[in-house]
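TL;DR need structure tokens for one chain.
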Amino acid sequence: MVITKDMPVSGIANSWDKTKEVFKKYDVPVNSNMALKEILQGELLDLLISDLNKVIGSSRTTCIEGG
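>> reply
TL;DR here they are.
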């Protein structure tokens, strides 16, 4: 699965414990139910999503649409 801007922070943090350090780096509260796109925008959002996907070992090339 690829982490996207529409996913809630708490859902990501609860699914992948190692993402909590990434959220800490970006000063994003792990207990937030807001989607990533509601917390950060632009380049910061892109960097956060990239870092989150790196830490869980996922990318668009490793995942297929819808699964």
